[in-house]
């Protein structure tokens, strides 16, 4: 078993807190994503797990082993760096073999295992090439094969897709999912991209300023963000400050000229709230639709199969994401009617200093 347990780990640099004391538990075979913006502490935590940084406090366990005081080479982990860190003077095969040879594995066995890993990542036949002869996506696969070849208990990935263009990044996301499915290896990956996190993760831990904001499944985090920061990071846009009306039936949130049914059942009547909405939960509908609001189409942009728009409704600006074919007949300035799905509306206790 190779579950990961992080207990009360904290880290400061030059007196500034990079990580506040935090816990993380990743079950055996889980693909865990650490999600957050630059400076959130996610890469620091990953390096502490790897043994590349020493925490000020706390402990790290991999399976039954406390590895807190062990050097990186004793932790039995695989690490893929953001810049891949391949040896330019070595062939692809020699790069992958490097970890095994450093452990004094017999050359024939190391070569056989390295070839097996290259096959796993789809690079069979590339053994004699140099890193300079490979694309970014191929270099990333070599780095992944090198991390896997030593049969680690834990695989750590530090923003491995950030340097790739969109098309290659999508391909590598599918490859990472396939490799994880085939190996069953406990994996922890750092990213700032919420789409990557939602696509790849079985578990997502979101960090901000060194603190855990939410640790959940991607589905639960998206449906029920734990606070305003999480909701905004996942694409929620602030409508404004509103008030809850929860007496006499299902709770509604009044914001501007809108009164929208809320899916949250823990809202207190009369509470002042910051109201956020997910653009994909807003739909432009026909005149006969019940519970629809009037507005004016203020902007419209096309992005391949999807279109993004904004609707003004009184003093509010409401975001919309829809299929391009649904938007083809729309024009800026059109009067429209729209609905907001309750599950796409999120209300949090107001903090006037944080309203943007």
UniProtKB/TrEMBL annotation:
Name the UniProt record assigns to this protein: Spermidine/putrescine import ATP-binding protein PotA
Nucleotide-binding: present as a keyword of the record? yes
The UniProt record lists the keyword ATP-binding: yes
Q: Which residues form the ABC transporter domain?
A: 4-234
Question: Under the GO molecular function aspect, what terms does this record hold?
Answer: ATP binding
- Keyword annotations: ATP-binding, Nucleotide-binding, Transport
**InterPro entries, alphabetically?**
AAA+_ATPase, ABC_SmlMolc_Importer, ABC_transporter-like_ATP-bd, ABC_transporter-like_CS, Mo/tungstate-bd_C_term_dom, P-loop_NTPase, Transp-assoc_OB_typ2
